[in-house]
């Protein structure tokens, strides 16, 4: 199968999750959403578990492409500060239902590694008992995570402009703690 067809199948599976949740992902529901036959899907994803694993990887890779676009480079070429700022900027995009459900489903499962790989490249590990800049970075990351899930939990809906202003305030905290003006 050409990559574009595989991507179409995965995008269709994500749309099924958006509409009906993870449990609704079946070969038949994805076939209906993608226009690819059930047999065509089974040929490339031998089991539902294999399809679910591919969806996790697909969403994690999409997230990493967003981080790279926000940063203007790959994680390995960016400083810690540049990676953190990119993370905050990506957080201005509201979490989708599919992203949230898949991330919530992944901990302590075989699917967690797809997400962990991206997180390890982009987000520094918190330092126990951190103070100063490390503590401020941890607080900024928590604020960015809150910004990302805010609309999904419906606690305080924000306009795109408000989200951008909030992200810039968070970035300001990171820069202030790092002593950076850039």
The appropriate CATH architecture of the largest domain is Orthogonal Bundle
The first-to-last residue Cα distance is 45 Å
CATH topology of the largest domain: Tetracycline Repressor, domain 2
Mean pLDDT: 89
Helical/strand content category: mainly alpha
Helix content: over 70%
Strand content: under 5%
CATH superfamily of the largest domain: Tetracycline Repressor, domain 2
Count of DSSP strands: 0
Shape: elongated
Radius of gyration: 18 Å
Report the sheet with the most strands, covering strand number, pairing sense and barrel closure.
Answer: none
Order of helices and strands: HHHHHHHHH
How many helices in DSSP terms? 9
Number of domains: 2
CATH class wording of the largest domain = Mainly Alpha
Low-confidence stretches: none
Describe the model:
Pfam families: TetR_C_28, TetR_N. Residues 26-45 bind DNA. InterPro entries: Homeodomain-like_sf, HTH-type_TetR-like_transc_reg, HTH_TetR, Tet_transcr_reg_TetR-rel_C_sf, TetR_CgmR_C. It comes from Cellulomonas triticagri. This protein folds into two domains: 1-46, Arc Repressor Mutant, subunit A, CATH 1.10.10; 62-178, Orthogonal Bundle (Tetracycline Repressor, domain 2). The protein has helices at 3-20, 27-34, 38-44, 48-71, 80-90, 97-105, 112-122, 132-153, 160-178. It has nine helices and no strands. The mean pLDDT is 89. It is mostly helical and 182 residues long. Helix 8 (132-153) runs antiparallel to helix 9 (160-178).
